[in-house]
Amino acid sequence: xxxxxxxxxxxxxxxxxxxxxxxxxxxxxxxxxxxxxxxxxxxxxxxxxxxxxxxxxxxxxxxxxxxxxxxxxxxxxxxxxxxxxxxxxxxxxxxxxxxxxxxxxxxxxxxxxxxxxxxxxxxxxxxxxxxxxxxxxxxxxxxxxxxxxxxxxxxxxxxxxxxxxxxxxxxxxxxxxxxxxxxxxxxxxxxxxxxxx
Length: 197
Hints:
Blueprint: H1 4-11, H2 22-36, H3 48-51, E1 53-60, H4 63-67, E2 75-84, E3 89-97, E4 104-114, E5 119-131, H5 132-135, H6 140-147, E6 156-159, E7 167-174, E8 178-183, E9 188-194
């Protein structure tokens, strides 16, 4: 039976999924399924104290996210998903590295609505794409505060079409510092709680 430590060891060298082949993905998916079977949190959507905060992505099967790391002069930096329970907001933040002084930031803001004890519906609302130095990005928490001041940003900042089909996310494993989710497009996400501001 594979446990949490074994899963973390298995995904440690795969750069969030960028360095996997089909065999690796199947092995990781099997390890995730075993851990999900032992989810210590019966009602993850209601575990506010554990859900709230900044989560760093360790592994995903999302081609959309992994695609950010496949541009010729850009490397994928850290990816965060920041959950703000009181505001029912999720912020997906991807840091892009590359040419010095031209590091990028891609942010997607969404509203979430609890549907079941395990599932939240996600309605994407806004996307902001810019250069970290130009927009003054320092950390996920500081950036979220800046986004919420509603000041004009020197970035590509646009509203996502409200008619776009909302997605959903099942929280299939949750403890104090590890979260596993499965999205409506079949993607897997493994994240660790971080103290990054």
